[in-house]
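Re: pantoate structure - here you go.
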Amino acid sequence: MQIIKTIDSLRQALKPLAKQGKSIGLVPTMGALHAGHGALIKASVNDCDVTVVSVFLNPIQFGKNEDLDKYPKRLEADAKLAESIGADFVFAPSVEEMYPDGDPLTMVRDEALESLYCGAYRPGHFRGVLTVVSKLFLISGADHAYFGEKDYQQVFLIERMVKDLCFDIQIHRVKIVREESGLALSSRNEYLTDEEKARSLGISLGLKQAKEAYDAGERGVMKIRDTVVKSILANRGQVQFVEVVSQKTLQKFNAGMLGPDDKAVILVAAFFGKTRLIDNIELN
Ligand code: PAF
């Protein structure tokens, strides 16, 4: 496996492979890889002839008071993990390589959804994500790209961007990987103390209870939502948002009852201590 640091070298490495008809899979990451990323890499290795894992801590998707500086960085360990699963290339460019003129002036935005849910609390986050993901698609020329469903709004926006802008790439959603306890894997879990980690199970427990209630016939939007809120509060978490939204449009179901054709997903963001965690569950 090769670690590549420049855009030109990645293009030089991948173009001949594409010419030979080899399919290229891209797994965009910000590093600090865990088993959730492992599942994305595995899916790409299974589907594609060549797998590229990008490791780039993208500054333009972080707000001023967010965790850019303390985000865990360990390229060597990331490369080892990627290699052990069968990746062919790790693309790890510097910030200067990706943004040679500073923050880009041309950016990709989804004006309808960029300021809802996570975007309401992280202004500029999604345009930073869509911009870097577009660049990674264009740099790699990948045929397939893999994203985890933990970042539900992110993968929804990426799918919409690919459709709206005619990117010639197939997006694959990969299911959330959870610890045995139910906690969704995230690089940010490393920030949690043991005590916060135990309490943070309030999120996955609440989602599980809400899904069980839905499966048992509960269709009241507020009741479903409140089950999750209560579980987080009972574990002394601070709720940022819990919303029941449409899987198809990501628009909120405000109140009332879910109908037989309403495919919903519960989106959650909550703080345990200083750590912000997100999670979700589909109600199917
Ligand atoms: O999900 C992430 O790790 C990032 O948002 C992504 C997609 C790699 C873009 O920087």
